[in-house]
Write a structure and sequence with these properties.
The protein is of the alpha/beta class and about 450 residues long. The protein is built from 14 helices and 15 strands.
Amino acid sequence: MSLASALKLASSNPLALYRPRPGQEQFHRSPARHRLMRGPNQIVGKSFAGAAETAYWLLHAHPWREVPSHPLKGALIPYSDKTAKVIEGYLASFIPRRLWHRDTRYHPDVGFTTRGRRVLRLVTGDSLIVVTQSAGTLAIAGHALDFVHFDEPPGASVAAEGRARVSATRGCTWMTLTPIGRPVDWLIEEVEAGTVEDTHVQPTPENTGLEQDELDQIEQETLPAERAQRFWGRWHGVSPNRYFGAWDDSLVSRELPGEEVQLGIGIDHGEDAGREAALLVAFLRHPTDPRCWFLDEYVSEGATGIEADAMGVLDMLSRWGFRPEDVDVAVGDVNSAGKNEAGYKVNSLMTEAIARLSDLPEQRPPLRIRNARKGAGSVSYSSRLLHSAMVRGNVRVHPNCSTLIASLSSWRGPGGDAKNKSFSHIIDAARYIGREFLDTRARGAERVTLR
């Protein structure tokens, strides 16, 4: 095909340029009314294939299935608004603008809207409503639909409501998912009973477009606790003895960065012995290959208060010849851990204590401790950042950090017995500050030199 012909085809029918990989094609070819495409996270194009399937229906142009000729009404039900916008972006590229209804608008930050509603409407009368799974079953109740696309596994009640909406029309539902972080036992039962057809796509070069050595690297960088599901797309994971499978004693080193770096402090708060943990870290930012050096730690020996913990952090800095104002980023747990006074949060109290101990006004502290970024999935996400950096050899831990070394060597992940939980405090401090620098979406500012 000449370039001119390809450009003409793309402008008239962008979907015609979609060439499914083997796993995607197997999903599209399935004649089942209720089906799913299951596979690794991000690398086999599950959401992309799900969006293409939606476009096939809306355009009445499915290459392997007969689609009803009347105007169709469908629903996109993603896990979150963020994933909705990704899929809507795919749809915006698949469906020519000349087919959009005159009242339909699209913006990457908003998605599709028609007269203020989350709806994609076409001049042909076909339409797609967009509603997240968090909106629950009531959001689609009452609608007679021809198809429903679930992105990531919904709860059993939401899935049942989706099927009920296509019952009268003899329509179809499909799911695109990686089975991690959501309850899927009910879905496994549906697959085993034959109610839902399962297309399990393996992470092969043919299904991903990646070379085998690239896939091997991705597998290695995936946390062992999540590898079975996140990389292989299996229903259940395997719990390893050690959460950070890439941790090795060779990462313990007195090596220091030879270039200018940024400094960070991560803090996990607690009252009892060993539960107040702080880490001093040097970071070299890079858009794709950040590096970090864990330099020192403060771990409380007994029950402590704000003043004692603030002094511990200052002593940690002093051992390296740093002042509080040399710290670029300081983050602490948002929990007060019992160190709450008059409604103030512990990060604010410690910020003020560091100012007092530095002979500065509390209103002008030399550093400010911000709340760590937490929320659903944050433990897994920030742990993956640390593990990936370990795999690349971009983490070094100074022998000063004896508690961190012991915890990285032994921690089995969230929960467990009391001993395992005791390792989590300094791991949390590492996660909080690691996310600030190892997340390549973040950007830095001033730098200092370690001598």
